[in-house]
Design goal:
12 helices; cell membrane; transport; alpha/beta; 4-stranded antiparallel sheet; P-loop_NTPase; ATP-binding; membrane
Length: 296
């Protein structure tokens, strides 16, 4: 099967007053059609930089992609100009950010923001766009969608706002969804609802999803394939079972050991809490990863 998204040898540098920071180094990553892949790592591991590079949304003028290719349906996105990328964003690749309140414009109603996205990417009139906007809100199971079309972001709960952000990302039925920490700001019950929603979208629409997360609970719930990053490099790639049950790289093993357990054995309770923390590994000990499962 041809990958829907293929990232090859991607390196991203940030040019700061203190020198060059190598945020992402020689990353290889692929997402197949209909797949849900998790990109996992601690804060600062380079996972968000990797995903935002796909859409050309690094933002800072100091960011530079120094090497690599990002292929979407065989086309190198790094060769497209801003006009070409605007057609890709939203129309073919949707983005779900981790902070829904900052992602939504407080000056416009939910319906107006959805209609704007739809009309930007599709040649439809306002009435058709409003119907599509309502369909998108119903797709994400937002209660009382007709009334919510007239609401402003601050009038919705955190979970409702996150559903709206997902609705906007899906409004034009993209083939790929990039979800950057989509449940971070939500309580446990709402987190599960959002993850179940992403699973439903994947099953019903066949949308491929790349989920950026630090949470192995998210990985266990929705991902079929997992890629682990550390210091801007991929250290291990495999199936969900490979990573959660049979991690090979010491860093991945350390991550798994750091996951809190609700039930500890007597022997585990005897271990001092400080000794249960994630092991620390030097940058030099981790080289670029390969397809399964590990790079030593």
């Amino acid at each position: 099967m041809t990958a829907l998204l293929r990232i090859e040898d991607l390196s991203v540098d940030f040019h700061t007053d203190g020198g060059v920071v190598h945020a992402v180094e020689n990353v290889d990553l692929s997402v197949e059609p209909g797949e849900i892949r998790g990109l996992v790592g601690e804060s600062g591991s380079g996972k968000s930089v990797t995903s935002l590079s796909v859409l050309g949304l690094l933002g800072s003028g100091r960011a530079r992609i120094s090497s690599g290719r990002i292929l979407f349906r065989g086309e190198n996105l790094l060769e497209k100009d801003q006009r070409g990328m605007r057609k890709i964003r939203g129309g073919h690749i949707g983005l779900v950010s981790q902070n829904a309140l900052s992602a939504l414009d407080p000056s416009f109603t939910i319906g107006a923001q959805l209609v704007e996205v739809i009309r930007l990417h599709q040649n439809v009139d306002a009435k058709t766009a409003r119907r599509a906007a309502l369909d998108a809100l119903e797709l994400v199971a937002l209660p009382d969608a007709v009334r919510r079309m007239k609401a402003y972001p601050h009038e919705l709960s955190g979970g409702q706002r996150q559903r709206v952000v997902i609705a906007i990302a899906l409004a034009c039925r993209p083939e790929l969804l990039l979800a950057d920490e989509p449940t971070t700001a939500l309580d446990a019950t709402v987190q599960k609802q959002i993850l179940d929603l992403l699973l439903d979208i994947n099953r019903e629409l066949g949308t491929a999803i790349l989920i950026v997360t630090h949470d192995f609970g998210v990985v266990a719930h929705v991902c079929s394939e997992v890629t682990v990053m550390r210091h801007g490099r991929i250290v291990e790639t495999g199936t969900r079972a490979d990573i959660l049950e049979r991690p090979q790289h010491p860093y991945t093993q350390g991550l798994m050991n750091a996951v809190p357990k609700l039930r500890l054995s007597a022997a585990e309770r005897a271990i001092p809490r400080s000794s249960r923390r994630l092991f620390e590994f030097s940058h030099d000990s981790i080289s670029e990863g390969g397809k399964s499962n590990v790079s030593a």
